[in-house]
Amino acid sequence: MGAAGTSTGRIAQPRPGPEGESVYPWSDLALRAPLQARNSVEIHLFRHGESEANAQGLITGQLDSGLTECGRTQASALGAALRKRYDYAWSSHLKRSIETLDLAMATAGASCSGRHIDRRLSERSLGVWEGQKRRVVPQYAQGSLSFAPPQGESYLRLTQRILSFLVDLARFSHEVDRPLTVLVSTHAGPLRVFYAILQRIPEPREVLSLEFGHCQPVVLTLSRLDWPPFVQKGAWLDEPGLLSPEVSVHQAV
């Protein structure tokens, strides 16, 4: 049986439960047919509140910048849009994401069966650019998924992380055998990828142009998981370092 109650997907050796952080090889994520979730998952996502780096106009990436007073106000105001009860809640490992989730849930009086930190939900690393002044990046404007700053991550790598998270979430809904409603505190880059995968956006340029305000709630439904239409199968082979050592190029094609 596959990860989401189907025999058509081949996903290898995950860590069990909602707290797993496996990033699967692309060869395993190259689904030959959609993964059908036996039970749907309603995902309530939001970007963190304004951070100190945001307020200073800096490139943030995985720089661990805390919230400003404005960011804390945004996070508290977000609580009005939340439900009182979620099955599970996740944040990235970065403190702006954790603090936003804390404040929003506290204001809402919301509870859940478990809270988890998952590094797959973190903003993409922007390498040596982190802490520099924000600027227009032509490669992103052109929709390049493979471009990455020196020592940073590409959108292909970020897509690999988010797709792995969604596979585990679909699997978990099958294991608990009931519909789930979950809360996810994340970042602008991951939000673009979540939205594009589940809304089936085909053009990379459109994906990379998506904008989400601080603490803007977004509700998406995971009922089946297809290959992301904005990623051409085999595109990851152009990016070094994505395939795990045990996976050959022949296997991944």
Short descriptors:
five-stranded mixed beta sheet; alpha/beta; disordered C terminus; globular
Description:
The protein contains 9 helices and 7 strands. The protein is an alpha/beta fold and 253 residues long. The strands form 2 sheets. Strands 5-3-6-1-7 form a 5-stranded mixed beta sheet. Strands 2-4 form a two-stranded parallel ribbon. Helix 3 (69-78) crosses helix 4. The protein is globular.
Please summarize what this structure is.
This protein has 253 residues and is an alpha/beta fold.
Draw up the topology in text.
Elements: H1 26-29, E1 35-47, H2 52-55, H3 69-78, E2 85-86, E3 88-91, H4 95-108, E4 111-112, E5 115-117, H5 138-141, H6 155-176, E6 180-186, H7 188-199, H8 204-209, E7 218-225, H9 249-252
Parallel strand pairs: 1-6, 2-4, 3-5, 3-6
Antiparallel strand pairs: 1-7
Helix pairs in contact: 3-4, 6-7
Shape: globular
Please describe the biggest sheet, giving its number of strands, its sense, and whether it closes into a barrel.
Answer: 5 strands, mixed
Number of strands: 7
Mean pLDDT: 86
Helix count from the secondary structure assignment: 9
The low-pLDDT segments are 1-17, 240-253
Terminal Cα span: 23 Å
The structure class reads: alpha/beta
How much helical structure, as a percent, in the residues? 25-40%
Rg over CA atoms? 18 Å
Percent in strands: 15-25%
What's the helix-strand series? Answer: HEHHEEHEEHHEHHEH
Main β-sheet, spatial strand arrangement = 5-3-6-1-7
